[in-house]
Predict the 3D structure of the following.
Amino acid sequence: MNVEHHDPDAVTEAELHAFVDGQLPAPRVEAVNEWLRARPDAAARVAAWQAQRAQLRALHRDVLDEPVPAALRASLEPARSRARFGTGGAARWALAASLLGVGFASGWAVHASRAAEARVDAVATAAPGFVREARLAHVLYTPERRHPVEVGAGERAHLLQWLSKRLDAPLAAPDFSALGYTLMGGRLLPGSNGEARAQFMFESGRDARVTLHVSVLAAETASAAANGGERAFRFATEGNTQTFYWVEGRFGYALSGEVARSELAALADSAYRQLALSGTSAR
Amino acid sequence: MGLERALPELPRLRRYARLLTGSRERADDLVQDTLERACRKWSLWREADPTLDGSGLRRWLLTMMHNVHLNHLRDERLPLVQDDGDVEAAASSLDMAAAVGARLDMAQALAALSSPLRDVVLLVCVEECSYEEAARILDVPVGTVMSRLSRGRERLRALLSADSSNLPAAPALRVISSRRGAHER
């Protein structure tokens, strides 16, 4: 490889690695592509590195889907870490039973001691992966003016059919019209491991937007969640965005918005009832 | 708030440990020791980095895992490669197999890498660390990360090719560390 140091177009070894690792600044990508086209040897080497990368990422992927041994989970139990949250386990502490419970707990936390607030925090930060995905997608797409959804509510049947097919599970979109929100539409999203996720977006007459994010969880995740009491509503907040989430059967739902907590709670309750009633079957 | 928020990271940590150690049993031992250490250090980290974002937590746990792994290797008196100059000298039995032309699969080839090269390759390829993050996790300069990455990849390429004994030594590609901007995004 003849790299001339003074040549501004010269492609360095470091840039070739950055090219393979997706760490090359966008303006350089085409330059590297072009450089490689003229150099079959270097191109072959880069292709081999790319293949290695893919193979490495595929190696032991099965471990990701294995149940985590109880002994490992136990080493993170609050009793063994610095913070103590009592015998019930931090995540199960409160906010569990119902929306009433949530209202009570959160209202209480405002007035209660710092320790109690820390407990609410602990619940919030123990949110499972699908909740993080939901929040990221919410924050990314709700400010969108021109393309907030991929398929609009005008094609509701098609939207549900499409997303159900891609998630390989029958999906339904709740009807929030009684609460002043209308369905705008939805989109297909990638989960953190490339799974298909669905997002439905709703808008109120006041331009407030909320999203319902639907995940089909791995059986292990869903049953762990059920054992952990996640059948109930949980609440998480980060910045201005608040999220109610719950697990029902194989589905993980997360409803996010920047609206008042009580309003979001009413929406979550409505969604929960409708989706539970529908047996999460498409309508 | 407690370290239970690391629960969602456990599957990834377990896979990473598996790649690092090459064995199921050693991997879970490594995760266990890492978590215990993490529990002890948790309050320190919270103070150092109050932003607490998920990827920050993962990087922190990876840093800890690398340190624990290093301790394990020391305890077992496995050949430790500290210095880059020793890297090529640390040949394993798999390395020998490769030398006589046996074709290795990726798991074997990975195991045949010396630990410093393997660490960098895994952090960059599997955990998708930026080169700067990998440097911080391993506590080495970015230039060292780049040169280890380069040698790791060329070593893997040689090990994975059908007849590696006939391959000429990979040409020593120049890592231009003076142009730091090139890989520092």
Q: What stands out?
A: The two ends of chain A are 61 Å apart (CA to CA). Chain A touches chain B through 52 residues (CB under 8 Å).
